[in-house]
């Protein structure tokens, strides 16, 4: 019988040529670090609903969903129409527009803590701007982040985020304190160092909840702690925004951060993101017609594509649907069905492991089980890490692709409202077969 890799090479044979072409053009042959896979990535041609189709015309059930940006699935008609209509009226008007105003109003309707909003073009830009605002407001230098929490790829959030440190100056590394996800440890840090401007947190835990926080208690304690120490509390809702609830993690759990960063779903599949929060912090970006302030004190922000009209149109359409069409409830229901199916597959195949997750993101751990409620896993960080090393996640993703399903990073399923019961059940069957295939090859 052919191995998983042999089946992969045959199934995705036309991708080899595209990979070779890409290797002559891109560093490492790819344009995003998560697109690296072995022996080569599958090249996608088009997508619709819960499916994407590669250059060999394979239909693949998609759980990458635009790295989490597509809560309603691919090519949602309302969003496509909004983009098409605006593209014909101007893709960039080079000035203030009615689109950006309506876009901000749509965001604020769902996230009440945002007294002011500024748009950017990516999640990385948003966390960068939020940290600069926090330092400007407090007059302090250092940032506290958590071990393995990912906030983009700029220098201030790279330490211990699962990324290499090449090119990051030591001077910047000295301004970043990496804490364990432990409230007592954070309290000790804030008590001993009076030069901390902000604490930033990935709201559902490191790597979009792969290493879950024990919420809502952890976030509530963190909010109380930062307030007591006069430190800016930044909730990074790039992943959780508009997914854990229509208003994100903060609305789901009744929190009021000082600043919030958002991306992905906020732009309806287009490139776009935002920073929002308290007016007194956000207004540090405002011109005051005072030359000294405007040129020296103000927090500057450019960005050619901030709230460009096509992104704004897509974002408005997506946020209106989330507000009015029960999108989250459908995605969450399908996610619950998938989680139950995956856990049943572990049992039926007598493979140790489990699936866990909240809302519409499901994580799997191979080789370890626990007594968690299958919503928020309570295994220690190191145990979770040990269950899913890179070799195993790549093997699982490759096996799932051979069986017609693409997972996020080989360790998660990001579910959309376009996934229906039949698609979920096909996914469960594919997962069960993948477990069999991996066990037959000695991977499990």
Give a structural overview.
The protein is of the alpha/beta class and 444 residues long. It folds into 2 domains: 4-74 and 326-440, Alpha-Beta Complex (Aspartate Aminotransferase, domain 1), CATH 3.90.1150.10; 77-324, Type I PLP-dependent aspartate aminotransferase-like (Major domain) (Aspartate Aminotransferase, domain 2, 3-Layer(aba) Sandwich). The protein has 18 helices and 15 strands. It has helices at residues 4-11, 15-23, 65-68, 77-87, 98-110, 123-138, 170-173, 183-192, 206-209, 217-229, 248-252, 279-282, 291-297, 309-324, 327-348, 381-387, 390-402, 421-440, and strands at 44-48, 51-54, 59-62, 116-120, 142-146, 176-179, 196-202, 211-212, 232-236, 259-262, 273-277, 353-356, 361-366, 405-406, 412-414. The strands form 3 sheets. It has a 7-stranded mixed sheet, sandwiched between helices. A 4-stranded mixed sheet has the order 1-2-3-14. Strand 2 and strand 3 (59-62) form a beta hairpin. Helix 4 packs antiparallel against helix 14, helix 5 runs parallel beside helix 14 and helix 8 runs parallel beside helix 10 (217-229). The longest helix has 22 residues, at 327-348. It is globular, with a radius of gyration of 22 Å. The two termini are 18 Å apart. 49% of the residues are buried. Its cofactor is pyridoxal 5'-phosphate. Pfam families: Aminotran_3. Keywords: Pyridoxal phosphate. Belongs to the class-III pyridoxal-phosphate-dependent aminotransferase family. One of its GO terms (molecular function) is transaminase activity.
């Amino acid at each position: 019988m052919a191995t998983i890799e042999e089946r992969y090479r045959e199934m995705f044979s036309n991708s080899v040529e595209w990979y070779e072409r890409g290797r002559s053009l891109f560093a490492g042959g790819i344009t995003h670090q998560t697109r690296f896979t072995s022996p080569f990535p599958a090249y996608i041609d088009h997508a619709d609903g819960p499916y994407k189709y590669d250059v060999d015309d394979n239909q693949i059930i998609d759980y990458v969903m635009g790295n989490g940006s597509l809560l309603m699935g691919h090519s949602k008609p309302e969003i496509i129409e909004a983009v098409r209509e605006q593209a014909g009226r101007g893709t960039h008007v080079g000035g203030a527009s009615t689109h950006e105003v309506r876009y901000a109003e749509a965001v604020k309707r769902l996230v009440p803590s945002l007294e002011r909003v500024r748009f950017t073009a990516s999640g990385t830009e948003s966390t960068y701007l939020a940290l600069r605002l926090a330092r400007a407001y407090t007059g302090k230098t250092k940032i506290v982040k958590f071990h393995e929490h990912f906030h983009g790829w700029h220098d201030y959030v790279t330490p211990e985020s699962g990324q290499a440190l090449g090119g990051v100056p030591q001077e910047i590394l000295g301004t970043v304190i990496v804490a364990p996800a432990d409230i007592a440890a954070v309290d000790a840090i804030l008590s001993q160092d009076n030069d901390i401007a902000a604490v930033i947190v990935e709201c559902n835990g490191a790597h979009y909840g792969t290493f879950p926080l024990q919420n809502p208690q952890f976030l509530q304690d963190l909010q109380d702690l930062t307030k007591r120490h006069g430190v800016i509390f930044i909730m990074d809702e790039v992943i959780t925004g508009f997914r854990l609830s229509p208003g994100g993690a903060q609305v789901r759990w009744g929190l009021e951060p000082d600043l919030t960063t958002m991306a992905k779903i906020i732009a309806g599949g287009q490139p776009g993101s935002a920073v929002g929060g308290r007016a007194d912090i956000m207004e540090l970006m405002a011109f005051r017609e005072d030359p000294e302030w405007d040129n020296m004190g103000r927090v500057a922000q450019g960005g050619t594509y901030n709230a460009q009209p096509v992104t704004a149109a897509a974002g408005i359409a997506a946020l209106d649907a989330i507000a009015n069409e029960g999108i989250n409830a459908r995605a969450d229901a399908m996610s619950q069905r998938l989680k139950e199916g995956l856990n049943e597959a572990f049992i039926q195949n007598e493979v140790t492991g489990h699936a866990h997750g909240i809302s519409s993101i499901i994580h799997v751990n191979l080789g370890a089980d626990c007594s968690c409620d299958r919503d928020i896993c309570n295994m220690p960080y190191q145990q979770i890490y040990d269950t899913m090393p890179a070799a195993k996640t790549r093997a699982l993703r490759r096996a799932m692709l051979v069986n017609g399903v693409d997972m996020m990073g080989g360790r998660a399923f990001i579910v959309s409202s376009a996934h229906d019961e039949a698609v979920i059940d096909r996914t469960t069957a594919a997962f069960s077969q993948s477990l069999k295939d991996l066990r037959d090859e000695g991977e499990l």
